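Final report, Chapter 2: Outcomes

The project's central promise was a pipeline that accepts a single protein chain and returns its three-dimensional structure in a standardized token representation, suitable for archiving and comparison. That pipeline is now operational. To close this chapter, we reproduce one record exactly as it appears in the project archive, with the input sequence first and the structure output second.
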Amino acid sequence: MHTIAIIAFEGISPFHLSVPCIVFGDDLLKLGAPRYRLQICGENIGSVATMSGFRIEVEHDLTSLATADTVIVPAWRDPDERPSEALLQALKAAHARGARVVGLCLGTFVLAEAGLLDGRTVSTHWAWAGEFERSHPHVALNQNALYIDDGDILTSAGTAAALDCCLHIVRRDHGAEIANRVARRLVVAPHRHGGQAQYIEKPLPTSGSEDQIGAAISWAIEHLDEPLSLDQLARRAGMSLRSFTRHFRNKTGTTFTQWLLNHRLAAAQRLLETGSCSIDHVAEMAGFGSTVSLRQHFTRTFSISPASYRRQFQKKPTLEGAQQ
């Protein structure tokens, strides 16, 4: 049985602790795969306070890391606080003997402090990206990735991305079918497309070239039903194509083509969820040009056809369905 040690500490977020517990605590035997053995570990056995005001009981100390197959560090309580030497040394020893080590969200800071990430590419929550890069210049941070699998070390971005990372580990250990069935039990997507950039707060700037880009982007969002090109937006911003392309990527975290597709897909989702017009009309209003193009992109991204998506969101649940 694969043993997973999850680190608990004073001030831990109950949600971040629960993510690996709920994913790896699933009764996989019912799905035809061996269960994981979970151990909640801390520097000391006993009661630990959470950030939500209640306490949890820790039954294993750090010596359990010596026999764990996977060690998971949930979101650390404060990126500015260096973890204890006891925890850092236990993580180093676990990794040195071959354990898989995982840092979820701000848990990446802990792995970096332990010296396990130098020369590697990692992910962490976008809001602390700048602080991470300043504190750990020898680690390559991918600010857009939801999670990074670097073989024996995995790291994830914030909150929901921890779910993505844990489901990926199940997929790696037991295959896509088992991971997909676990995801369905949790009522979450088995695999999310895109990166953190789609969730990062990016208020429109107030001056300079960035303000020109913001205005061009706002105009494009209002004209998704029209043919749009990078040249067209660059002209509206009064910038050269090369300069606009660079600033656009810095602002959005993605290419113009991908950004436009994401917004057109989102527009199609809203129309399908709230409107009653034909699929052909949805394709036209969202700017796909043809129903075939809408179906291809929509199905590839969401693993469901536009028509099925509409039925799913507009169908009123029956009493029997609500009880399932």
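Archive annotation: Residues 256-274 form the longest helix (19 residues).
This record, like all others produced under the grant, will remain available to the consortium after the project formally closes.
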